[in-house]
Amino acid sequence: MWSCGPLNGTAGAEDQPLCQQFHLALSVLSLLYLLLGVPVGLAYNALLVLVNLCDQGGMTMPDVYFVNMAVAGVVLSALAPVHLLGPTTSGWALWGFSSEAHVTLLVLSNVSALVTTYSTALLSLDCYIERALPRTHMSSAYNTRHVCGFVWGGALLTSFSSLLFYICSHVAARATECSQMQHTEAADAIMVLIGYVVPALAALYALVLLSRIWKEDTPLDRDAGRLDPSAHRLLVATVCTQFGLWMPHYLTLLGHTLLAFRGRPVDGRPLGVLLFSKDLSRLLAFSSSCVTPLLYRYISRTFPGRLRRLVKKMHCGRQSCSPDQAGVQQVMA
After folding, report:
1. What distance in Å separates the CA atoms of residue 84 and residue 63, rounded to the nearest whole number?
2. Which stretches make up the G-protein coupled receptors family 1 profile domain (predicted)?
3. Under a CB-based contact definition with an 8 Å cutoff, are residues 3 and 92 in contact?
4. In this predicted model, what pLDDT tens digit does every residue of 26-42 receive, in sequence order?
5. Domains of the chain in sequence order
């Protein structure tokens, strides 16, 4: 799937076996993700959305953000085979498509990536607000739903730069304003700044603030309205996972942008290393779509109970379950 073609003629013979081993390992990992990670990501993300939407009254502020990330995860999981096996890979592609389809898929993946990172950053900020001001309504589930709507709108506006560069590549001969917008490196630089640096700094700032009051024990900690302690562990795991898996992808975009702006030709050995890093970072980025719902499944204390209630409700069907059976199950729980 991935070859050492870009290195031919530039690397020594002693580098070829090592290159082939790296690309073979990357091919195996990519195929494993496509065979296992994509179905798991689609199934668990869809299950996360279904359970929360069927129990909207029991949704808390973190649940709304995780539903938002699950919807973006479904899109990323669906686009993973196209990006990992399509013409954007460094090796041979199993299929090809027009430039219009390529830009459309690129915009969809950028929007989903932005929604994922910004939802993670806003989740950490709202968790700090809930911790510092437990009785405020600023971090309620009702307000969070509206915030998630703004996140999707902002992601669409930010991804508009990709469409703008594509349009200018076709009308540059007739519009002088597009003469400086014929390179995708500028769009990559915008994505690095807005898509990763800004939300990463916001999440880091929120974690620093949370660390200062994490061990403070106040009477408000015993309020029933406060978040479950497992939500804090889930927050840390989600922030570290999301930004850790997306960091190589944005670092690769940043490296390609810097090389292009400095006027260095990207060929030979640098091209092979860059293409290999790009493929590996893309694989790590797409794998985040299946890791996050698994974290939510095994760390959240409320999700297993709501999942059992949903299964019980679906099992009963149109016939309502008897009150005695429901009461016995509540006592068993």
Report:
1. 30
2. 44-296
3. yes
4. 888 888 999 999 999 99
5. 36-214+224-314 (1.20.1070.10)
